[in-house]
Write a structure and sequence with these properties.
This protein is of the alpha+beta class. It has eight helices and 17 strands. The strands form three sheets. It has an eight-stranded mixed β-sheet, with helices on both faces. Helix 6 links the parallel strand 14 (243-247) and strand 15 (273-276). Helix 1 (3-12) crosses helix 4, helix 4 (164-180) crosses helix 8 (315-331) and helix 6 (255-267) packs across helix 8. The structure holds cobalt (II) ion (CO) and zinc ion (ZN). Cobalt (II) ion binds next to loops.
Length: 333
Protein backbone atom coordinates (compact mmCIF):
# COMPACT_ATOMS: atom_id res chain seq x y z
CA UNK A 1 0.00 0.00 0.00
CA UNK A 2 1.23 3.50 -0.80
CA UNK A 3 1.78 6.15 1.84
CA UNK A 4 -1.03 8.13 0.19
CA UNK A 5 -3.42 5.22 0.65
CA UNK A 6 -2.43 4.63 4.27
CA UNK A 7 -2.94 8.28 5.15
CA UNK A 8 -6.25 8.41 3.29
CA UNK A 9 -7.41 5.24 4.99
CA UNK A 10 -6.69 6.81 8.37
CA UNK A 11 -8.07 10.30 7.68
CA UNK A 12 -10.86 9.08 5.39
CA UNK A 13 -11.98 6.34 7.74
CA UNK A 14 -12.65 8.80 10.55
CA UNK A 15 -16.24 9.90 11.15
CA UNK A 16 -16.76 13.53 10.13
CA UNK A 17 -19.90 14.63 8.29
CA UNK A 18 -20.45 18.41 8.08
CA UNK A 19 -20.86 19.98 11.52
CA UNK A 20 -19.59 16.80 13.22
CA UNK A 21 -15.91 17.10 12.37
CA UNK A 22 -14.52 16.53 15.88
CA UNK A 23 -13.03 13.08 15.30
CA UNK A 24 -11.49 13.89 11.93
CA UNK A 25 -10.10 17.13 13.33
CA UNK A 26 -8.39 15.19 16.14
CA UNK A 27 -6.98 12.66 13.68
CA UNK A 28 -5.56 15.38 11.43
CA UNK A 29 -4.23 17.44 14.35
CA UNK A 30 -2.31 14.42 15.66
CA UNK A 31 -0.57 13.97 12.29
CA UNK A 32 -0.09 17.69 11.53
CA UNK A 33 1.27 18.57 14.97
CA UNK A 34 4.84 17.57 14.24
CA UNK A 35 5.11 19.68 11.06
CA UNK A 36 4.05 23.06 12.39
CA UNK A 37 4.53 25.62 15.19
CA UNK A 38 1.02 26.35 16.27
CA UNK A 39 -2.40 24.72 16.04
CA UNK A 40 -5.82 26.13 16.94
CA UNK A 41 -9.49 25.37 16.46
CA UNK A 42 -12.01 28.18 15.93
CA UNK A 43 -15.68 28.38 16.92
CA UNK A 44 -16.87 26.88 13.63
CA UNK A 45 -14.57 23.93 14.07
CA UNK A 46 -11.91 24.87 11.49
CA UNK A 47 -8.47 23.49 12.35
CA UNK A 48 -5.82 26.15 11.74
CA UNK A 49 -2.19 24.98 11.58
CA UNK A 50 0.56 27.58 11.30
CA UNK A 51 4.21 27.36 10.29
CA UNK A 52 5.43 30.78 11.36
CA UNK A 53 7.34 33.16 9.13
CA UNK A 54 7.87 36.89 8.70
CA UNK A 55 7.07 36.98 4.96
CA UNK A 56 3.98 36.62 2.83
CA UNK A 57 0.91 35.10 4.45
CA UNK A 58 -0.25 32.09 2.47
CA UNK A 59 -3.34 30.11 3.37
CA UNK A 60 -3.95 26.56 2.13
CA UNK A 61 -7.38 25.10 2.78
CA UNK A 62 -8.86 21.62 2.47
CA UNK A 63 -12.32 20.86 3.81
CA UNK A 64 -12.36 17.98 6.25
CA UNK A 65 -16.13 17.44 6.43
CA UNK A 66 -17.85 14.81 4.34
CA UNK A 67 -21.36 14.42 3.03
CA UNK A 68 -23.70 12.22 5.05
CA UNK A 69 -27.25 11.64 6.19
CA UNK A 70 -29.15 12.69 9.32
CA UNK A 71 -31.98 10.76 11.02
CA UNK A 72 -35.21 12.76 10.89
CA UNK A 73 -37.93 10.32 11.90
CA UNK A 74 -38.28 6.75 13.16
CA UNK A 75 -41.45 4.80 12.31
CA UNK A 76 -43.25 2.26 14.56
CA UNK A 77 -41.41 -0.64 12.95
CA UNK A 78 -38.03 0.96 13.60
CA UNK A 79 -37.21 2.11 10.07
CA UNK A 80 -35.36 5.44 10.04
CA UNK A 81 -36.13 8.24 7.59
CA UNK A 82 -33.32 10.65 6.85
CA UNK A 83 -32.37 13.93 5.27
CA UNK A 84 -29.20 14.76 3.38
CA UNK A 85 -26.11 16.50 4.72
CA UNK A 86 -24.54 17.87 1.54
CA UNK A 87 -25.35 16.72 -1.98
CA UNK A 88 -26.62 13.16 -2.38
CA UNK A 89 -27.79 11.33 -5.50
CA UNK A 90 -30.31 8.54 -4.98
CA UNK A 91 -28.54 6.23 -7.41
CA UNK A 92 -25.54 6.18 -5.09
CA UNK A 93 -27.50 5.23 -2.00
CA UNK A 94 -29.56 2.10 -2.64
CA UNK A 95 -28.42 -0.89 -0.57
CA UNK A 96 -25.42 1.01 0.74
CA UNK A 97 -24.30 0.52 4.35
CA UNK A 98 -24.07 3.57 6.59
CA UNK A 99 -22.53 4.02 10.04
CA UNK A 100 -23.60 6.37 12.85
CA UNK A 101 -21.09 8.01 15.21
CA UNK A 102 -21.77 5.40 17.92
CA UNK A 103 -20.92 2.58 15.50
CA UNK A 104 -24.51 1.55 14.69
CA UNK A 105 -24.75 0.31 11.11
CA UNK A 106 -27.70 0.18 8.78
CA UNK A 107 -28.62 -0.36 5.14
CA UNK A 108 -30.35 2.25 2.98
CA UNK A 109 -33.32 0.74 1.15
CA UNK A 110 -36.39 2.08 -0.65
CA UNK A 111 -40.17 1.81 -0.92
CA UNK A 112 -40.71 -0.78 -3.65
CA UNK A 113 -44.19 0.45 -4.58
CA UNK A 114 -42.76 3.70 -5.95
CA UNK A 115 -41.51 3.24 -9.54
CA UNK A 116 -37.72 3.30 -9.36
CA UNK A 117 -37.38 6.33 -11.63
CA UNK A 118 -39.73 8.34 -9.40
CA UNK A 119 -37.83 7.65 -6.19
CA UNK A 120 -36.64 10.65 -4.20
CA UNK A 121 -34.73 10.66 -0.92
CA UNK A 122 -38.16 10.78 0.79
CA UNK A 123 -38.83 7.23 -0.43
CA UNK A 124 -35.64 5.88 1.11
CA UNK A 125 -35.09 4.65 4.67
CA UNK A 126 -32.34 3.20 6.84
CA UNK A 127 -32.83 -0.32 8.20
CA UNK A 128 -30.72 -1.07 11.28
CA UNK A 129 -32.48 -4.37 11.81
CA UNK A 130 -34.42 -3.10 14.83
CA UNK A 131 -37.49 -4.96 16.15
CA UNK A 132 -39.53 -1.78 16.52
CA UNK A 133 -39.28 1.96 17.23
CA UNK A 134 -38.22 1.55 20.86
CA UNK A 135 -35.53 -0.93 19.83
CA UNK A 136 -34.25 1.44 17.13
CA UNK A 137 -34.15 4.36 19.55
CA UNK A 138 -31.70 2.47 21.75
CA UNK A 139 -29.15 2.95 18.93
CA UNK A 140 -30.23 5.99 16.90
CA UNK A 141 -31.81 9.28 17.95
CA UNK A 142 -33.41 11.95 15.75
CA UNK A 143 -30.58 14.26 14.67
CA UNK A 144 -27.90 11.58 14.62
CA UNK A 145 -25.61 11.75 11.56
CA UNK A 146 -24.35 8.78 9.56
CA UNK A 147 -21.74 8.28 6.84
CA UNK A 148 -21.03 5.67 4.14
CA UNK A 149 -19.53 2.52 5.63
CA UNK A 150 -17.84 1.07 2.56
CA UNK A 151 -14.29 -0.34 2.33
CA UNK A 152 -11.38 1.46 0.64
CA UNK A 153 -8.84 -0.17 -1.64
CA UNK A 154 -5.79 0.60 -3.72
CA UNK A 155 -5.14 -1.12 -7.03
CA UNK A 156 -2.55 -0.32 -9.72
CA UNK A 157 -1.92 3.12 -8.28
CA UNK A 158 -5.60 3.99 -8.07
CA UNK A 159 -7.48 4.67 -4.83
CA UNK A 160 -11.18 3.86 -4.50
CA UNK A 161 -13.75 4.24 -1.73
CA UNK A 162 -15.80 6.82 0.13
CA UNK A 163 -14.71 10.37 0.96
CA UNK A 164 -11.83 11.08 -1.33
CA UNK A 165 -13.93 14.29 -1.27
CA UNK A 166 -12.21 15.73 0.54
CA UNK A 167 -10.07 13.68 2.87
CA UNK A 168 -7.71 13.25 -0.08
CA UNK A 169 -7.36 17.06 -0.10
CA UNK A 170 -6.53 16.85 3.61
CA UNK A 171 -3.96 14.14 2.85
CA UNK A 172 -2.49 16.34 0.10
CA UNK A 173 -2.04 19.19 2.57
CA UNK A 174 -0.50 16.86 5.17
CA UNK A 175 2.01 15.59 2.60
CA UNK A 176 2.86 19.17 1.59
CA UNK A 177 3.25 20.14 5.26
CA UNK A 178 5.63 17.25 5.81
CA UNK A 179 7.77 18.39 2.86
CA UNK A 180 7.75 21.95 4.19
CA UNK A 181 8.59 21.06 7.79
CA UNK A 182 12.31 21.51 7.19
CA UNK A 183 12.06 23.93 4.25
CA UNK A 184 13.85 27.27 4.25
CA UNK A 185 11.16 29.86 3.71
CA UNK A 186 10.23 33.22 5.15
CA UNK A 187 6.61 32.74 4.27
CA UNK A 188 3.99 32.66 7.00
CA UNK A 189 2.12 29.46 6.20
CA UNK A 190 -1.38 28.54 7.33
CA UNK A 191 -2.84 25.13 6.63
CA UNK A 192 -6.54 25.18 7.36
CA UNK A 193 -8.74 22.10 7.52
CA UNK A 194 -12.16 23.63 7.10
CA UNK A 195 -15.55 22.66 8.45
CA UNK A 196 -18.94 22.49 6.72
CA UNK A 197 -17.89 22.91 3.10
CA UNK A 198 -20.41 20.39 1.81
CA UNK A 199 -23.38 22.34 3.16
CA UNK A 200 -22.37 25.67 1.61
CA UNK A 201 -18.70 26.61 2.14
CA UNK A 202 -19.45 27.69 5.70
CA UNK A 203 -16.12 27.27 7.47
CA UNK A 204 -13.54 28.60 5.04
CA UNK A 205 -14.65 32.24 5.02
CA UNK A 206 -14.40 32.58 8.79
CA UNK A 207 -10.93 31.01 8.79
CA UNK A 208 -9.70 33.35 6.05
CA UNK A 209 -11.20 36.33 7.90
CA UNK A 210 -9.07 35.58 10.96
CA UNK A 211 -5.89 34.73 9.05
CA UNK A 212 -6.08 37.65 6.55
CA UNK A 213 -3.93 35.91 3.93
CA UNK A 214 -2.17 37.56 0.98
CA UNK A 215 -3.00 34.54 -1.17
CA UNK A 216 -5.31 31.59 -0.49
CA UNK A 217 -5.32 28.20 -2.21
CA UNK A 218 -8.02 25.57 -1.81
CA UNK A 219 -7.37 21.88 -2.35
CA UNK A 220 -10.31 19.67 -3.24
CA UNK A 221 -11.45 17.04 -5.72
CA UNK A 222 -12.76 17.85 -9.18
CA UNK A 223 -14.67 15.90 -11.79
CA UNK A 224 -13.06 14.21 -14.81
CA UNK A 225 -14.03 14.09 -18.46
CA UNK A 226 -12.55 10.68 -19.14
CA UNK A 227 -15.58 8.40 -18.71
CA UNK A 228 -17.60 6.90 -21.60
CA UNK A 229 -20.40 9.09 -23.01
CA UNK A 230 -20.09 11.95 -20.54
CA UNK A 231 -22.70 14.68 -20.90
CA UNK A 232 -20.32 17.63 -20.74
CA UNK A 233 -16.77 17.54 -22.11
CA UNK A 234 -14.06 18.30 -19.58
CA UNK A 235 -10.34 18.40 -20.28
CA UNK A 236 -9.35 16.74 -17.00
CA UNK A 237 -8.34 13.08 -16.83
CA UNK A 238 -7.61 10.89 -13.83
CA UNK A 239 -3.89 10.18 -13.54
CA UNK A 240 -2.67 13.00 -15.81
CA UNK A 241 -1.58 15.28 -12.99
CA UNK A 242 -3.13 17.67 -10.49
CA UNK A 243 -5.57 20.21 -11.96
CA UNK A 244 -5.14 23.96 -11.56
CA UNK A 245 -8.60 25.48 -11.36
CA UNK A 246 -9.39 28.25 -13.82
CA UNK A 247 -13.03 28.54 -12.75
CA UNK A 248 -16.15 26.77 -11.60
CA UNK A 249 -19.71 27.94 -10.93
CA UNK A 250 -18.67 29.68 -7.70
CA UNK A 251 -15.32 31.27 -8.52
CA UNK A 252 -13.00 32.64 -11.18
CA UNK A 253 -9.48 32.23 -9.86
CA UNK A 254 -6.87 35.00 -9.89
CA UNK A 255 -4.89 34.61 -13.15
CA UNK A 256 -1.54 35.42 -11.52
CA UNK A 257 -2.14 32.76 -8.89
CA UNK A 258 -3.07 30.16 -11.54
CA UNK A 259 0.13 31.01 -13.42
CA UNK A 260 2.23 30.74 -10.26
CA UNK A 261 0.74 27.34 -9.47
CA UNK A 262 1.46 26.09 -13.00
CA UNK A 263 4.98 27.50 -12.75
CA UNK A 264 5.54 25.69 -9.43
CA UNK A 265 4.45 22.49 -11.17
CA UNK A 266 6.90 23.03 -14.02
CA UNK A 267 9.73 23.76 -11.60
CA UNK A 268 9.33 20.38 -9.95
CA UNK A 269 8.60 18.50 -13.15
CA UNK A 270 4.90 17.91 -12.57
CA UNK A 271 2.43 18.01 -15.44
CA UNK A 272 -0.70 19.93 -14.56
CA UNK A 273 -4.11 20.12 -16.20
CA UNK A 274 -6.46 23.11 -16.39
CA UNK A 275 -9.79 22.73 -14.66
CA UNK A 276 -12.98 24.41 -15.78
CA UNK A 277 -15.86 22.86 -13.88
CA UNK A 278 -19.21 23.86 -15.35
CA UNK A 279 -21.02 23.12 -12.07
CA UNK A 280 -20.33 22.96 -8.35
CA UNK A 281 -18.11 25.07 -6.16
CA UNK A 282 -15.40 24.82 -3.54
CA UNK A 283 -13.97 26.72 -0.59
CA UNK A 284 -12.04 28.82 -3.12
CA UNK A 285 -15.13 30.99 -3.54
CA UNK A 286 -15.53 31.65 0.18
CA UNK A 287 -11.82 32.41 0.56
CA UNK A 288 -11.95 34.92 -2.31
CA UNK A 289 -14.84 36.92 -0.87
CA UNK A 290 -13.39 37.37 2.61
CA UNK A 291 -12.83 40.89 3.97
CA UNK A 292 -11.80 43.20 1.09
CA UNK A 293 -11.19 40.22 -1.22
CA UNK A 294 -8.35 37.71 -1.44
CA UNK A 295 -6.29 36.48 -4.40
CA UNK A 296 -7.13 32.83 -4.85
CA UNK A 297 -6.22 29.68 -6.69
CA UNK A 298 -7.12 26.03 -6.34
CA UNK A 299 -5.44 22.71 -6.91
CA UNK A 300 -7.79 19.81 -7.57
CA UNK A 301 -7.42 16.06 -7.54
CA UNK A 302 -9.17 14.59 -10.63
CA UNK A 303 -11.75 12.23 -9.15
CA UNK A 304 -14.41 9.98 -10.65
CA UNK A 305 -17.84 9.29 -9.11
CA UNK A 306 -17.69 12.22 -6.68
CA UNK A 307 -20.17 11.98 -3.79
CA UNK A 308 -20.71 8.26 -4.38
CA UNK A 309 -19.43 5.63 -1.90
CA UNK A 310 -16.86 4.60 -4.51
CA UNK A 311 -14.93 7.71 -5.52
CA UNK A 312 -11.76 7.03 -7.50
CA UNK A 313 -8.50 8.91 -8.06
CA UNK A 314 -4.84 8.26 -8.89
CA UNK A 315 -2.27 8.30 -6.08
CA UNK A 316 0.22 9.95 -8.45
CA UNK A 317 -2.04 13.00 -8.84
CA UNK A 318 -2.09 13.38 -5.05
CA UNK A 319 1.69 13.10 -4.79
CA UNK A 320 2.09 15.62 -7.62
CA UNK A 321 -0.32 18.06 -6.00
CA UNK A 322 1.52 17.86 -2.66
CA UNK A 323 4.88 18.52 -4.33
CA UNK A 324 3.52 21.41 -6.35
CA UNK A 325 1.91 22.98 -3.27
CA UNK A 326 5.08 22.64 -1.21
CA UNK A 327 7.05 24.30 -4.01
CA UNK A 328 4.49 27.10 -4.28
CA UNK A 329 4.40 27.61 -0.51
CA UNK A 330 8.17 27.86 -0.19
CA UNK A 331 8.69 29.97 -3.28
CA UNK A 332 6.17 32.82 -3.12
CA UNK A 333 8.26 35.78 -1.95
CO1 LIG B 1 -18.13 17.41 -2.14
ZN1 LIG C 1 -15.13 18.66 -1.71
Amino acid sequence: MSKVFDLWNEVGGTFGPSGREDAVRETIAAIAGEYIDDITTDALGNLICRKKGSGKKLLFAAHMDSIGVVATWIDDKGFIRFSQVGGLFKGDLINITVRFANGTRGVISYEEKTPFKDLTLDNLFIDIGAKDKADAEKCVQIGDFAVFDVPRFEQNGVLCGPYLDNRIGCVTLLLAMEQLAEAETENDLYFVFTAQEEVGLRGAGAAAFSVEPDVAIAVDVTDTGDLPERKTPMAVDMGKGPAVKVMDRSVICTPAVCAALEQAGQECGITTQREILPFGGTDTAALQKTRAGVQVGAVSIPTRYIHSPSEMCAASDVEGAAKLLAKFAAGQN
